[in-house]
Write a structure and sequence with these properties.
Number of helices: 6
Number of domains: 2
Radius of gyration: 37 Å
Structural class: mainly alpha
Length: about 170
């Protein structure tokens, strides 16, 4: 047996790098594939009809132009009908929309409520500013506060109140 003292000790092997995690592809369902195929075919046929409409033979007033326009209209009608049947578009789009109503309400000390319909955000902002000015009329402020407010009003005008809120 040979002495082990003279043999060099091998260096430990570095640990293996972990394999890179690849992003998995999202596979489409059969319904999504059918919808995509319908959209692609619709775009292709529409582009073909429009390019034919731009040709010399389809000048305004000719029967061929009228036939292409009718075909384009029927293509759009059939496309919307088909995607509605597939459930991509709701059957009644009006029921899917939401109407927004904005009101400004005032509650008095006695519990009475007064509401005011607001047409725009600017109108709501104007009403709020007017209310703030009305509320501040009865507040007793020190002369220093009044001097600072006068200085800010002179320097910034109405924007002084907006800058403080932001």
């Amino acid at each position: 047996m040979e002495p082990t003292a003279n043999k060099p000790i091998p260096a430990p092997e570095p640990p293996a790098k972990p394999k890179r995690a690849y992003k998995k592809r999202m596979s489409k369902t059969e319904a999504e594939k059918a919808i995509t195929q319908l959209e692609v075919t619709h775009r292709y046929v529409k582009r073909d009809i429009i390019s034919a409409l731009k040709s010399k033979e389809c000048s305004p007033g000719t029967n061929s132009r009228l036939a292409y326009l009718k075909a384009l209209q029927q293509l759009e009608i059939d496309y919307v009908e088909q995607i509605t049947k597939m459930g991509v578009l709701p059957k009644n789009v009006a029921s899917q929309t939401t109407t927004e109503y904005v009101f400004k309400a005032h509650v008095s000390k006695g519990g009475g409520v007064q509401t005011l319909a607001v047409d725009s955000k600017q109108q709501l902002l104007d009403i709020s500013r007017a209310e703030e000015k009305e509320y501040k009329k009865g507040v007793a402020d020190s002369p220093e506060d009044e001097a600072i407010r006068a200085q800010l009003e002179a320097e910034f005008g109405d924007r002084a109140a907006q800058l403080q809120k932001e």
